[in-house]
Design brief:
Blueprint lengths: L2 H14 L8 E8 L12 E5 L10 E5 L4 H7 L2 E4 L8 H10 L2 E5 L3 H12 L13 E2 L5 H8 L2 E5 L5 E8 L4 H16 L9 E8 L5 E2 L2 H38 L1
Parallel strand pairs: 3-4, 3-5, 5-6
Antiparallel strand pairs: 1-8, 1-9, 2-7, 9-10
Helix pairs in contact: 1-6, 3-4
Length: 254
């Protein structure tokens, strides 16, 4: 997959889409092959930081103690003090998990966070993750982390060998979307056991649009070649059949 193919496919995706009453997101879909998801070393699960924001605000909630509370209130979209944890029963915790994309945790209160929110955030894959830099000390500077999370995506295979992630919105500059696509693709390759050989195909689509293969023309040509071979074989078989019938007729005449 090269930049030219991505550029051409993005153009097709945008031109084929009908105008909507909302700004559509652009999704990158990567189908994998020769991957055994039962083997932990072959499954995909990592965070990737894009060069450009996705075009859609990423909502961040901070679960903190008194040391980080004033800063968290100023920088994050929501700050929940450890003193308010008892207010978040299962229903309230579920609502929180639905509304926010990332959760920042103060490391010194992680046991309390796990007890209060673990059963809800865990299954949704939203527990504060050290790999994303979301578990921080009491003296952390939250602003750089908040800005980084605006450009962070999670690439993960769950039950099927497929990766799907948002890489932009239709109103973003093409060069920014293309850069996000290319860097995501390159990052994924480095996390696959056989690199590019584990990529089956790559597609691009808008929220309400159809998916387009990146570099599909090459795939079509291959399929046409196989069809031509099959048609040639069928034609050869049809030519042989009349000959066989003629020999039988000759024998019956004798």
């Amino acid at each position: 997959m090269d930049k030219t193919q991505v550029t051409e496919t993005l153009k097709k995706v945008k031109e084929s889409s009908q105008k909507r009453n909302f700004i559509q997101s652009i999704d990158l879909i990567i189908n994998l092959r020769d991957i055994d998801l039962k083997k932990p070393e072959q499954s995909v699960n990592f965070f990737h930081t894009l060069h450009y924001p996705k075009g859609k605000k990423v909502k961040v909630c901070a679960l903190v103690g008194p040391e980080l509370l004033p800063q968290a209130k100023q920088i994050c979209d929501l700050a929940v003090s450890v003193d308010d944890f008892p207010k978040y029963q299962k229903k309230e915790a579920k609502k929180l998990a639905t509304e926010y994309d990332f959760f920042i945790a103060q490391s010194t209160i992680m046991p309390k966070i796990a007890t209060t929110f673990g059963k809800v955030l865990g299954p949704k894959g939203k527990m504060p993750n050290p790999k994303a830099g979301c578990v921080v000390p009491p003296n952390a500077n939250l602003k750089p982390l908040y800005e980084k999370l605006q450009k962070t995506i999670k690439l993960q295979t769950k039950n099927d060998p497929i990766i799907q992630t948002m890489v932009g919105t239709e109103n973003m500059k093409d060069e920014e979307i293309i850069d996000n696509i290319m860097t995501t693709y390159d990052a994924l390759i480095h996390h696959l056991p056989s690199g590019k050989n584990n990529i089956k195909n790559v597609l691009l689509k808008l929220t309400m649009g159809k998916a387009f293969h990146i570099g599909k023309e090459e795939v079509i040509e291959e399929k046409e070649t196989k069809k031509q071979k099959k048609e040639t074989k069928k034609a050869e078989v049809k030519e042989k059949v009349p000959e066989e019938k003629t020999k039988k007729e000759e024998q019956s005449e004798k």
